[in-house]
Amino acid sequence: MSEPNAAALDQLGASMSARQRFLRRFLRQRPALYALGFLVLLALGAAFAPWVAPHDPLAQNLDRVLEAPSFDHFFGTDELGRDVASRTLFAARISLLAAFQAVFIALLIGVPPGLVAGLFGGQTDNLIMRITDALMSFPPLILAVAIIAVLGPSLTNAMIAVGILLSPTFLRLMRGTAMAVAQETYVEAARSIGCSQSWIITRHILPNVVSPLFVQISVFAGVAMLAEAGLSFLGLGAQPPDSSWGAMVGRGFRYISHSPSLIVFPGLAIAVTVLAFYVLGDGLRDSLGREVRREQ
Amino acid sequence: MTAPLLTVTDLEVTFKIRRGLLRPTRKLRAVNGVSFHIEPGETLAVVGESGSGKSTVARAVMRLLEPSRGSIHLDGDDISAMKGEALRRIRPKLQMVFQDPYSSLDPSMIIADVVGEPLTVHGVATGAERDRRVQDLLEQVGLGRYHMNRYPHEFSGGQRQRIAIARAIALEPKLLVLDEAVSALDVSTQNQILNLLEDLRRELGIAYLFISHDLGVVEHIADRVAVTYLGRIVEEGPTERVFAKPAHPYTEALLSAVPVPNPRIQRSRQRIVLPGDVPSPLAPPSGCPFHTRCPHVMDVCRGEMPSHESVADGGSVACYLGRV
Amino acid sequence: MSAPLLEVEDLAVEFLTDHGWVRVVDGVSFSVGAGETLGLVGESGSGKTVTSLSVMQLIPRPPGRIAGGSIRFEGRELLGLSDQELEALRGEAIAMVFQESMTSLNPAFTIGDQIGEVVRRHRGVSRREARVRALEVLELVQIPDPEARIDAYPHEFSGGMRQRAAIAMALACDPKLLIADEPTTALDVTVQAQVLDLLRSLQQRLGMGILFVTHNLGVVADLCDRVTVMYAGRMVETANVFDLFESPQHPYTEGLLQAMPQLGERGKRLAAIPGTPPMPWQMPDGCRFHPRCPYAEAACAEQDVKLDDLGEGRSTRCRRHAELKLEGAE
Asked: Which has more pLDDT, C102 or A182?
């Protein structure tokens, strides 16, 4: 029943290029624009932390420990008298970097086999999907702890664990999208003019599978950041003197009754940043609109 | 006498249908014992309804599918078993335009790349030389240079089909396979494309294998027609003869079922309305595939598929009528 | 002539798009009498489908909205009826058949159950009685061996049989008006001929009015009594089917008729209407057909053209119709 309407609507939107239409829709997504703005500011702040931060994040001042927020120290001081505001800003570097490490690992081990499974199908597909199923049947936290136990506790190892855990979703997404794109007539048309297999994959299939990937990257950056916070809180992530937001919360937890500001500010940073990634992902998905939905 | 450009002999294409994990796979014979030929610069139309296998014939000739039996000779070479590099080298002679202009152009490519891709892939032209060729091709199909940097989304169905044609003629093929190439278009646009195809044939001497279900269009564009039913050619011959004096009862019924766009003629003419539907290709009838719906069915029709015999005024028919 | 069953007056429908509110149907008026078949003809994007869906208010809202006009069925205004009142009409007094019958049949239920469901909802009869009625209508649409087929699922039917089943479902409650949107477009020609014959004989027996939406002039010539031609969201001509084919009064109608390949001579160039229809958000001023019209004058681009009543149920939206001698089908 919705058939004729969808066709009519498709026609109404047909005169713009995909990119134009994407931009036009995206610019209308207020929350996603704010989220993007926030993330850009945060990234700049983290990148230029040595110049932006009011204090040296490692400078101790044992005369002024566990102070409440003041004009001198916006977010207060920690148990060694270090400036929490500066530490939060520097920790952003670690947290963001960790999130992207995890997403990068997930892409690295998820996307190529996903594409292979989607494009080759048959027994190859079967094998890859059974391995993925086996991997996904482990409880995630136990798997993460096991990986860290083998590789040793460090932030990078923790993020490798998170990346491995996130990779099956990328794998499945790529497999599904690649399967759908490989069925498209333009792929058959490319074969008919005599394009080689590798040309078809790089020129016709890859460009058309990346858009849904961006949505997932944004959402998973948030997920990875949350996972990093959890692992660092447990002491399995960032090791001193490095500090991530999760590690700050973990250390501050001991002084929660004395000075709650120690966990409030890094905690807030985690919450807002994760939310920003989610909202951006949502906005991207909605702006890609029909193009993505048709492919899935 | 020159050799035909394309000779298809006893072509058979089967698909394996898997209907569930534990059920046996079944064979669907989409095309069965099909033979035809196309002379250089000639237009052969293959007409038929759904399930007739006409699109499968197109894909087998294009070697997008592997025939399970029979041979396909293009310009003297048997391409029916070619693979890989050998097949790629033969591609420039053989190009195709697909039915759906919306899904046959890659949405992520600009028009210059869509049309120029065959030139790039076969190393014919690159850079500025390629762009110049693309521009010529676009002009040839009635589009302009200013269209080169746009995306397929920005074009109407008819314009997209022009782009698809420009791409298909880029390598100066000898044979163009048109699979329902105007079926998705509105009448006014459809005629623009048909006229364009006529012009290109005259200028470039391309032969067309024109796959269609629309008899009105076929009557206009084709030199010869092959009528297919359930994977077989039941009648073949010069367009004028087939339309004026159909020799197969199916052709006759098909022609009579097309409504004439004139109420006075349409409402007074004698029509043959066939009973039932086309049988499933998974369980084709024995003997002549048309015998389940044929108004002239005889006992002999249920036994063996009749062979093709020639018809007065040209062509051939596979029917026992008038033979026994 | 009997009072019209369906009267549509000055209908306007808008859709919210990336270009804001866009009017896709504008000032469309027509009527369908009992026992009469009106063909609503146009190319894709002409607004014919949106018009037919608007009668039963089946356009999706949002993004669509009926922006004005009136739709009366047996004298009763349909615009502004509550959802319950519309539900009661749909499938009972007014039924619809679509191009793709698979979309109106639910794959999870048998054909008999689905037809029975419609009967039970509108007539409140028992399961057994509903089944008897389902069997009756399946026989009516000439489905072979209906006793066996009534318990089949839609996917077990061929395309032609599904379309028959969809018509059977539409007829289950003896509708007075059948709205058929391209019901034969997805079918093979030999099956299309069967379905057209079926519709004609059903109409003679049941006396219902049919609003037949199509782009195929051959089908119109076969089945319709009167024809309304639409272009770019507006109706450009309405006439009796014989008059329309013999002496069209609008250049667009002439263009469509001349464009039928059957009428062209082999080897000659086919008549084609140059250019493409405008997008609904960039409608040309004046007559919407003027950029493609071979008879256009400067004035055609300036003033809006009103629908001209020519009497005897004919009307046209062309300011030059009186001076032009347009060619019909031979």
From this structure: A182
Q: To the nearest whole number, what is the mean pLDDT of chain C?
A: 88
- Residue numbers in B near A191 (CB within 8 A): 64
The string of pLDDT tens digits covering residues B242-291 is 999 999 999 999 999 999 888 998 899 888 888 877 888 888 899 999 99
CATH architecture of the region A31-49+76-295: Orthogonal Bundle (1.10)
Amino acid, res. B202: R
Query: Which residues 164-203 of chain A have a CB within 8 Å of chain B?
Result: 184-186, 188-196, 199, 203
Q: Do A184 and A249 touch, CB atoms closer than 8 A?
A: no
Long-range contacts (CB closer than 8 Å, 24 or more residues apart) made by A2-5 = A2/C60, A2/C103, A3/C98, A3/C99, A3/C100, A3/C103, A4/C49, A4/C50, A4/C53, A4/C98, A4/C99, A4/C181, A5/C50, A5/C53, A5/C59, A5/C60, A5/C64
Q: What is residue A120's predicted lDDT score, i.e. its pLDDT?
A: 85
What is the mean predicted confidence (pLDDT) over C176-180?
93
| CA–CA dist A148, A237 (Å, integer) | 9
Task: Give yes or no for a contact between C172 and C119, defined as CB atoms under 8 angstroms apart.
Answer: yes
For each of the domains in chain C, give its residue range(s) and CATH number, in order of start: 1-33+42-81+224-330 (3.40.50.300), 101-174 (no CATH)
A18, A185, A195: residue with CB nearest B151:
A18
> Does the pLDDT value for residue A13 go beyond 70?
no
Name the H helices within chain B: 54-61, 84-90, 111-121, 127-140, 157-169, 187-204, 215-221, 239-244, 249-257, 263-268
| pLDDT at position A208 over 90 | no
Which ipTM was obtained for this model?
0.84
Q: How close, in Å, is residue A284 to chain C by CA atoms?
A: 17
Rounded Cα distance between C35 and C205, Å, is: 9
User: How much is the pLDDT for A17?
Assistant: 55
Is the CB of residue B36 less than 8 Å from the CB of residue B29? no
The answer to whether B225 and B45 have CB atoms below 8 angstroms apart is: yes
**β-strand pairing of B6-17 with B69-74:** antiparallel
Q: How far apart (Å, rounded) are the C-alpha atoms in residues C140 and C83?
A: 31
Q: Which of C89, C115, C247, C46 is nearest to C179 (CA)?
A: C89
Q: How many contacts (CB atoms, under 8 Å) link A and B?
A: 75
Q: How confident is the model at residue C265 (pLDDT cuts 50, 70, 90)?
A: low
CB contact under 8 A, B121 and A195: yes
Q: Does A33 touch chain B (CB under 8 A)?
A: no
Instruction: List the domains of chain B with CATH numbers.
Output: 6-105+172-317 (3.40.50.300)
pLDDT over 60 at B13, yes or no: yes
Contact: A8, C280; criterion CB under 8 Å: no
Quote the pLDDT of residue C159: 79
